[in-house]
Every structure is written in C-alpha cells, then in structure tokens.
UniProtKB/TrEMBL annotation:
Record field: transmembrane: 30-50, 56-78, 85-108, 128-151, 182-207, 219-242, 262-279
Membrane topology designation: Multi-pass membrane protein
Signal peptide: none
Keyword annotations from UniProtKB, A to Z: Cell membrane, Membrane, Transmembrane, Transmembrane helix
Pfam families listed in its UniProt record: BPD_transp_2 (PF02653)
Subcellular location: Cell membrane
Main location: membrane
Keyword Signal on entry: no
Listed InterPro entries: ABC_transp_permease
Keyword Transmembrane: yes
Protein name: ABC transporter permease
Domain of life: Bacteria
Length: 297
C-alpha cells in the first residue's frame, strides 16, 4: 500500500500543480490550454539549468522565469492582440513542445535525454518509505489549501472571480480585469514551473522530449471536472493519478495478458470520462466553465 501511495503522490503532484494553474486562469476568465507547453518548458528549464549550473535552486528559478515569461506572452496575445484564448493557449503549447525540442538539440546537439545530475531535496530516511518524496510533494497540499483561502476567502479572490464571470461589473467598481488576468496567469506560470520541476527533478532527475505526455491537458480537464474549485480540481487531478498508478500496477500483475497500450491509456480514458461526467452533472460545458455548484462552498 505504501508503494501505491507513493506512486500516486509522485504522479499526482505535477498534475495538481498544473491543475491549480489552470484553476487560477479559469477564475480570471481564461481557458488556459497552454498548460502543457508551460509544464514541459518548466521541466526542460529545470533539468538543463540544474545540469549546467549544478544547482537545483538555479534550475528551479530558471523554470519559474521561463514559465512566467510564457504566461506573460499568453496574456499579451489574448489581452492586447485580442486573440482567442483557446487558440492562443494551443499555440503556447506548440511553442513549448517545439521550443524544448529545439533547445535540447541546440545545447546538446541531439534529442537525447538531459541528465540533471541531482534532484529536488527529499525528506530522508527519518520518514521511512515516504522519505523518497521531494519537498514539492510535501508542499503540495499546503499550496492547494493556500490557494483555496486566497480564492474563496480574500478580497483578491472575489475580485478575480468577478473578472472572470462579470468583467464589465468588475470594471465598473474599479477593478481592472486585464491586470487581474495577468496576475492569475503569472501565478499559474509559477505553479506550472513547480509541476514541471517535480516531473523532471522529483524522481527521474532527467528531461526527455515530450515527457509531459499530455499531463497539461489532464490538468486542464481536472479544472473542468473539479468545477473550477481549488480543492475539487486537486481531487480530480488526484483521481487521474490514482488511475495512472493502478494502470502501472496492472502491468506488473497481468503482464502480457492485457495489452500494454490499453493499460497506458487508462488515465486518458479516465480524463475523457471525467469531463463527460462533469458536463452531465452540471448541465453542460458552459455550467462547468463557471464552476457549477462547487463555487457555493
């Protein structure tokens, strides 16, 4: 059981960080489909920065800078150039996927995996089997709780939600929706950097091309499944991680009896199913976009 729990936490932590980034953007009124691109950019920057400098702190800082700049680019395209948020987000994802591939080839001369050489600090042997978990895994529930307090129990959170749901009303009382969206996207950039860094430096201590494997889109789906609520989105991401961990465990149990590709597809099938259930329970995608009944809590 401890091995399964550790596997769930390891696979779920990057997803939850990215889901929190999507939740902030959704609260501000932007469907951020650039999460995948930001996540892989953060993973690449964290691994390359750590490998070149020998410092995990430098790699993590570089990842945050890269993801925040990417988020600011998305804000500029959406707010100033009036591009459609979904199209702009997909463009950012393409930029992240292609840009990391190009960066690795430019720096190392090939598409080989980048070995970071060291990883994030871990809890240590004093915590038993859970000592292999990184500090970002342990920090994750506190981050989710802090975001819930900010979004649901502060003036800033109410203003952010107002900018997403009723931007004209927010503007009439002196709140600038464009500025609030910039803050939300930049905060989401930091969270995507943490998710990418955990993916690259938490367990594997390496970066490989396309290693996110659609986790950014799963984080986006978690926001829909969770109704735009911080805790609901985190639980949805955790559910997808449970399915992923069970799929990996099933490969060991069933071996060649069940097609390996089918087991690997389980978390993606669960993502599609979760989005469909969310739409059915809340009366369609439009209701899910506004958070449904979860926003009453």
């Amino acid at each position: 059981m401890s091995d399964i729990l550790i596997a769930i936490l390891r696979s779920g932590t990057p997803l939850i960080y990215v889901a929190m980034a999507g939740m902030l953007a959704q609260r501000a009124g932007i469907w951020n489909l650039g999460l995948e691109g930001l996540m892989i950019a953060g993973a690449c920057a964290a691994a390359v920065g750590t490998a070149k400098s020998g410092s995990v702190a430098f790699g993590l800082g570089l990842a945050i800078v890269v993801c925040v700049l990417g988020s600011m680019l998305l804000w500029f395209v959406v707010e100033k150039l009036r591009a459609h948020p979904i199209i702009a987000g997909l463009g950012l994802t393409g930029l992240g996927l292609g840009g990391t591939d190009l960066a690795v080839q430019a720096i190392y001369g090939s598409q080989a995996s980048v070995m970071a050489g060291r990883g994030l600090p871990r809890l240590g042997e004093a915590f038993g089997p859970f000592g292999v978990l990184s500090v970002l895994v342990i920090s994750m529930p506190f981050v989710v709780l802090a975001l819930w307090v900010i979004v649901r129990r502060t003036r800033f959170g109410l203003q952010l939600t107002a900018c997403g749901e009723h931007p004209f009303a927010a503007r009439s009382v002196g709140v600038a929706p464009a500025r609030m969206r910039l803050i939300a996207l930049m905060g989401g950039g930091v969270l995507c950097a943490l998710g990418g860094a955990e993916l690259a430096l938490g367990t594997l201590q390496l970066f490989s091309i396309n290693m996110t494997a659609g986790r950014g889109f799963m984080g986006f789906a978690s926001v829909i499944f969770g109704g735009g609520h911080p805790i609901g989105s985190a639980l949805a991401a955790l559910f997808f991680s449970v399915v992923d961990a069970l799929g990996i465990r099933a490969q060991l149990l069933f071996g060649d009896k069940v097609p390996r590709d089918l087991l690997l597809a389980l978390p993606y099938l669960a993502t599609v199913l979760g989005v469909w259930i969310s739409g059915q329970l809340r009366g369609g995608v439009k209701a899910a976009a506004t958070g449904g009944e979860l926003r009453d809590y």
